[in-house]
Design a protein that fits this description.
- By secondary structure, the protein is of the alpha/beta class.
- It has 2 domains: 55 residues, 2,3-Dihydroxybiphenyl 1,2-Dioxygenase, domain 1, CATH 3.10.180; 50 residues, 2,3-Dihydroxybiphenyl 1,2-Dioxygenase, domain 1 (Roll), CATH 3.10.180.10.
- It contains 2 helices and 8 strands, in the order βαββββαβββ.
- It has a 4-stranded mixed sheet with strand order 1-4-3-2, covered by helices on one side. A 4-stranded mixed sheet has the order 5-8-7-6, covered by helices on one side.
Length: 118
């Protein structure tokens, strides 16, 4: 092992808004907060999701090689319909893609993520 995972860093135009989205989606807390950078996680000494401000975000378009997804998060859920209602309430957008075991959405900054049936 060379090192330990610290964070998945996601570029966005509004770190506060996107941190709030992922906090509610994943049940995390803010573990670091600066003007241009917010980290959320289970605890300060655990791997985090970090949201980093960029001036102009080129939004991914899934699936489109000219505008690649850049990253995505898979979220395990017990009920796809109930989870879908909640993420849409939080500001996600459905991409009307998936199967009977997963569905694809974008977060408020346009990054794709999947709800995966556990």
């Amino acid at each position: 092992m060379i090192g330990k995972w610290q964070a998945l860093v996601i570029d966005c135009e509004d770190p506060d808004k996107l941190a709030s989205f992922y906090q509610e989606l994943l049940g995390m807390i803010r573990v670091q907060e600066e003007d241009e950078f917010i980290s959320i996680g289970d605890a300060a000494d655990r791997p985090a999701i970090a949201l980093q401000r960029v001036e102009r975000l080129v939004r991914p378009q899934w699936p489109d090689a000219d505008h690649p997804q850049q990253m995505h998060v898979d979220v395990l859920v017990g009920d796809l319909d109930a989870a879908e209602a909640e993420v849409l309430r939080l500001g996600a957008t459905s991409l009307d893609a998936g199967t009977d075991t997963f569905r694809v959405y974008t977060d408020p900054s346009g990054h794709p993520f999947c709800l995966v049936l556990s």
